[in-house]
Amino acid sequence: MAKRKIQYDQVVPRKNEWPIVKLAMNRPEFVQRVADESMAELTAKGKSIHEQLETTLYKEKLRIRANPWKVDPKDDKEFWDRVQTDLSDIQNLSKKDAASKEEEIMRHIAYRYSDEIAGNFNKSYFRFARAFVTFGFARLLNAARGKGFLALFRRQLDLQDKLHIRGEPEHIRKLAKKGTVIMVPTHFSNLDSILIGWVIQYLGLPPFIYGAGLNLFNIKILAYFMNSLGAYKVDRRKKNPIYLEVLKNYSTIALEEGTHSLFFPGGTRSRSGKIEKRLKVGLLGTAIKAQRALYQKGNVENNKIFVVPVVINYHFTLEAPALIKEHLRATGQERYYQEADEFTTSYKMASFMFKFFTMDSEISVSIGRGMDVLGNYVDDEGNSLDAKGKSVETIDYFKSGDDVTVDSQREHEYVRILSKRIVEEYHKYNRVFASHLVTYTAFKMLERRNPKLDVYSILRLPEEFLEIDYEEFKKAYKKLQNQLNILHKEGKVDLSEHMKKTATDSIAHGIKNAGMYHAKRPLILKKNKKVIVIQDTNTLYYYHNRMEGYGLEKYI
Amino acid sequence: MDSKNTSDPIGVVGAGSFGTAIANLLAENCEKILLYVRDPKKAKSISKSRICSDQKLSDKVEITNNIQKLGEECNVIFPVVPSANFRDLMKQLGPYLRPFHILIHGTKGFDLQLIKGKPDKVTPANVKTMSEVIKEESSVVRVGCLAGPNLAKEISENKPAATVIASQFEEVVAVGKSLLKNERFLIYGSSDLIGTELCGILKNSVAVGAGMLSGLNLGENARALFISRGLVEMINLGKELGGNVRAFLGLAGVGDLIATCGSSLSRNFTVGHKLAEGMSIKKIMDSMEEVAEGIKTIDIVHHLSNFYGVRSVINEMLYKIINKKLSVKDAQHLLMKMPFRQEVEFLD
Q1: Which helix (H) or strand (E) covers residue B70, if one does?
Q2: CB-based contact A424:A550 (threshold 8 Å)
């Protein structure tokens, strides 16, 4: 393993010029602006302020009663009680006074939300936390590699040894100088944000902001880091119109200000193990809106937004058993399910990370090629190229005749176009590991053998049906391996090194690594090497899902 | 954007009967129309005679042979050329188009890109609708289509009619409406672009068949049977190709079907009629001034139905007749033996 380590220098060396630091320094103005612009949207023509207030109040009161959290502000209940009293007082006012009073209440709420979302990032904290993350990782890894306690103070190994960065790292560095970058990674595990955080830092990119679930702020140690690393708070419990509008505006305005951002466009971790197919249009919509707003301001330098897909691959997801259970329960039409939260305490979090990084298993992060907000590829200079490779001006997408115009229905369609392109890129940059393909082959063989059963019945097959003859398996595996090679040549998927080995070696590698740290591994090869035994159909299904969407089922 | 009353010229590509009718319709609402004619000689003669596809051109229609001028001067363009020439046209026009352009096409046919060495390979991967061709060959996204019972001759005679403009972009529908609408021409909007395009295309083969029945003098009952079953086939395949059932039940689907399956003004209908009279396919094609999309559609539908495993009994029969594996007479008997399990299953 004598690979030379690449050191990337900082893209923007002076920290005071980092967009995020600028944002932090102007926090009060920023929070105010988010509130003001949200108000403009909320009070736009055709929207009833009264109705929105009533809905919000109702939902908030319900949340406080049914689902309170530690991180909630102390005056939460008090605040909403007061809103309720104010709203009922309005009935006695004249029509005109009532309208202005309602607007005032709404403005108040919008500001409160904006302030809450912004969190309290702090420049000096921020630097410290960033240094600490890098340093901390190195320590953790050394200790984990069995060098004992003293290894904590040696600095030899770092994430770079474990984590392979593929794709186009130089390209994203160039784009970060030319405009605002939105990184859109796939999302399978809670560790993804930490991994991406490390990648950003490692590539010398200025920090990115991202929306982190408020539930993660319940854990003190995480809250500390996230507050300082530019995370803003997203409260998934709050699904009221005012909150959602403020949240969208927060992201839009941060982008307009040139702050690089991280979106997990799938919303949450993929429950099924599939690569995200349906992306959250709300968040992606802020990219389109911000780009249009920037163009409306005229021809400003560096006003382009770049979307960079990122695919994270590992042999196993620690949360897989819980995630797939949730997925099955949800698709099995169960009405309500609790979100699985593995990280309820700092201790669990730490032991999770320790386990993850100590395992002798490969992780790869593939950085995709940058695109404009319509999904056109961009070159290193940031110029968009259409499907034919011809240069195209992104601003033209927002014009009618000679002027940039606002058309929300049009922009809604653009979000769909962008989202489709991101999904395409995910499949392209997805780096297939042998462990993905062995689980896929095994599950598809089960399906073939039991053509009359639906997925749920296959998952409940009794043990005696869960053995596969090795030679038969190998035959099927080979076919799929060939097909993947063809797709790879067409540039439709990426393959890891062990996928290029012979079927026998590749299968051995795959079985060894597939879900290797689960209590029950999905697949094992019997000692006589003649039979493959499926031990856990649920996780087998989960890992198999990763290979859906390539049309491979036709080849088995 | 309201293009009505602005001085920007509106573009039309294709001087066939429908293209000409569209140009004349536009002339009622717009100051200037640029009608692109590919063949320079033909362009010259039309400019001189002011007669195009047997229709008198409005004074506001200017003939041009310059495709660059068309792209650069017109923000809104209506391409109305046969499907076989559409991709070539887009390849030429594409470089002059930008993302703010609006393209509303009126071509009811599939684009087929043959794979070298595999002329029989026809799958969804190489069969495209015109809107997909536009998006592939240019940076235009604001794409729409025109579909419905629009026999060009009747429109040119100022008889009343209606059409559907479909696009995922509301602005495209709105612009199309404001440009084409008048007291004799009614316009419905739809957001199902693919579905609406498929209506116009898939009806072609049914129209050929209906013409055949009429040539055989089988009567109105048989024709009605044929049209209703044809519609079911259209929907079954249309759904596989990404269309919505709703579009097929509207003006672009049922409406177009009724018009073309009963009128000798329809080219596809005429092809079928002549087939039944015993004329060979080649002769029929040679005798026609404009392309009948139906023959090509029958071939493509045959392959696509096989690909998806969809039962298209009627199309299959037409396919065999055209490829001389079945005589028109035999087909007539076969038709009465068609096994129908359930009359209307697509609504379930």
Answers
A1: helix B67-73
A2: no
pTM score, two decimals? 0.88
Asked whether the beta carbons of A320 and A366 are under 8 A apart, the reply is no
Angle, helices B220-240 vs B294-308, to 10°: value is 50
CA pair distance A453, A459, nearest whole angstrom? 10
Domains contained in chain A, CATH given: 19-118 (no CATH), 161-379+405-429 (3.40.1130), 431-555 (no CATH)
Is A353 a residue whose pLDDT tops 70? Answer: no
B7-61 pLDDT, tens digit per residue, is: 789 999 999 999 999 999 999 999 999 999 999 999 999 999 999 999 999 999 9
Q: Has domain B10-191 been given CATH number 3.40.50.1970?
A: no
Structure tokens at A68: 């309170």
Give the separation between CA A390 and CA A384, rounded to whole angstroms. 8
- Whether B10-191 and B195-336 share one fold: the answer is no
B-interface mutation test, from A409, A412, A416, A492, most B Cβ less than 10 A away: A409
Range scoring the smallest mean pLDDT among A251-260, A328-337, A494-503, A507-516: A328-337
H-helix segments, A450-502: 455-459, 470-489
Kindly list the residues of chain A whose beta carbon comes within 8 Å of any beta carbon in chain B: 374, 376, 386-388, 390, 392-393, 396-397, 399-401, 405, 407, 409-410, 413-414, 416-417
B122: number of Cβ within 10 Å: 22
- Out of B1, B139, B168, the one facing A386 most closely (by C-beta) is B139
**For residue A436, what are the CA distances in angstroms to A187, A319, A473, A495, B181?**
16, 16, 14, 11, 56
Which of the residues A376, A413, A414, A416 would you substitute to probe the B interface, choosing the one with the greatest number of B C-beta atoms within 10 Å? A413
Q: Min CA distance, B91 vs chain A (Å)?
A: 10
CATH topology of domain B195-336: N-(1-d-carboxylethyl)-l-norvaline Dehydrogenase; domain 2 (1.10.1040)
In this structure, how many other beta carbons lie within 10 angstroms of the beta carbon of residue A442? 28
B283, burial (CB in 10 Å: exposed 0-12, middle 13-18, buried 19+) = exposed
- The domain segmentation of chain B, as residue ranges, is 10-191, 195-336
Q: What is the pLDDT of residue A154?
A: 45
Q: Closest to A413 (Cβ–Cβ): which among B99, B100, B169?
A: B169
Place of tokens 């927060």: A250
| % of chain B with per-residue pLDDT over 90 | 73
Instruction: List the single residue in B1, B95, B99 with the smallest CB-CB distance to A397.
Output: B99
CA distance B89 to chain A (A): 15
Q: Are A287 and A161 in contact (CB under 8 A)?
A: no
DSSP state string for A391-425: EE-GGGGGEETTEE---HHHHHHHHHHHHHHHHHH
Asked if the Cβ–Cβ distance from A401 to B98 is below 8 Å, we say no
End-to-end distance of chain B based on CA atoms, in angstroms?
A: 40
Q: Which of B203, B296, B320, B337 is the catalytic position? A: B203
Question: Which residue shows structure tokens 């094992």?
Answer: A524
In 3D space, the residue among A544, A68, A542, A549 whose CA is nearest the CA of residue A326 turns out to be A542
